Amino acid sequence: MLVERGLQAMNVELVSEAYAIAANYLRRSGAIPDTLVTDERLLGIIVKLLQHGEFNRIRLANKAIARFEAQAEARAVA
Q: Source organism's superkingdom (predicted)?
């Protein structure tokens, strides 16, 4: 049980770090507003990537940025 809790805490930290990196980039590029509110869509992308086995925070952030921008572009076209 303790190992499971430790892993869960590590994942929260990993998601938090990846989110901070991705959100910082997306705020600077104007893709998301510069507020303290968490962007649920970006967070969901990061969590899905983590669930699919990505555990490197830089790769998580980069893949999340790419998916977020692709989704935004698809929404703009539709």
A: Bacteria
